[in-house]
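Email to the structure team, subject: Nuclear RNA export factor 1-like model.

Hi all, the expression group asked for a predicted structure before they design truncation constructs. Nothing fancy, just the tokens so they can compare against earlier work. One-line instruction: predict Nuclear RNA export factor 1-like, return tokens.
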Amino acid sequence: MSKRFDGSQQALDLTSIHTDPDLVSQDIKVALNRKTNMEAVIKIIEENIPQLTSLNLSHNCIQRLDELSELVTKVPHLKALNLSHNDLKSEHELDKLKGLKLVELWLVRNPLCDLFKDPSSYVSAVCQKFPQLLKLDGNDLPPHIGFDVETPTTLPPCKGSCFGSDDAKVYIQRFLQQYYSVYDSGDRQSLLGAYHDEALLSLTTPYNVQNPSRSGLREYFKDSRNLKRTKDSTMRFHLLKHKRLNVVALLNELPKTQHDITSFTVDVNAYTVSSRLIFVVDDKSKESTRAFSRVFITVPAVNSGLCIINDQLFIRMATTEQISRAFVAPAPTPSSSPVPTLTAPQQEMLSTFSLKSGMKLEWSLKCLQDNEWDLNKAAQIFTQLKTAGKIPDVAFLK
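Reply from the structure team: attached below.
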């Protein structure tokens, strides 16, 4: 091995070592696909050249990398590794080397390279395992964005909601209050009025069927469109709900919920008065306490409200900290929100009437109360008054 070591480069070239003339002449065969032989090589490296930075193991019929996992601790300065022209059949073998901070890696002419549908998928999979990689199979990789944090770092505290403008804040808060009062009512059919005819909905959960601890999400699993797990294009299309009837049909099948609206964090990504509104909601939900992130893309509705054209819902188990903070804020008083004082059917009727009329909750509530909670009668009176111009602009959501 000493004749194959370049001290100036701290590089060891063990290419085709089983055909080395000096070994063959003495009838010695060093096969690195044998456990004892590879262990012996690593021991020699550890004892004699622990500062090694480059190792070439190409053309050695290597099938597994179990023994090479020792390189992580025994050869910590290794930056370049050549495993080309071997017999590695699975990308999972590379997981055994993930602790190495490699900047150069060669894998060409291994069976695992043929498992990827295109070169970009191959590069992406390898770079996920070795994020500091600069060269793969001799080719320069595009620069990656990352941070080497050597010492424990505490992330800054999460900031609150960002609405962009006061108008957007009023608009969205009313919308969310109406939407989730219906969502939590037990009958989500009235949400039809909140969705565009061509609306899209996707539901995602990180739930793993092999992990029993995630059983709190089991009820969502069959509808989860997790693209990292769902590879079949037909199934991906099937799980993407298109048109509002299909969207609300799925929402009706999901478990009953109770949301802590005081815990919502809202980020408005894009907002214009005449165009679409994109906002993200984060929340903790009760029962087996779950949390969610949700992206709504909305456009102005005919009734001056919001109409959802795209809904991306990601459901996960809540953390211990989130559970401790959930449902501890005081409930809104009747003066700030009339909804909590109503029965569930009345809350649903109020939300439906407000969505369809475009009026604020307090004005919708008054109209329903004046008409003894007769939805059809209230709608008729509303239409008459609106046509006559007797409802002030302040009654409507801007």
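The two ends are 79 Å apart (CA to CA). The longest strand covers residues 306-317. Ping us if the truncation boundaries need rechecking.
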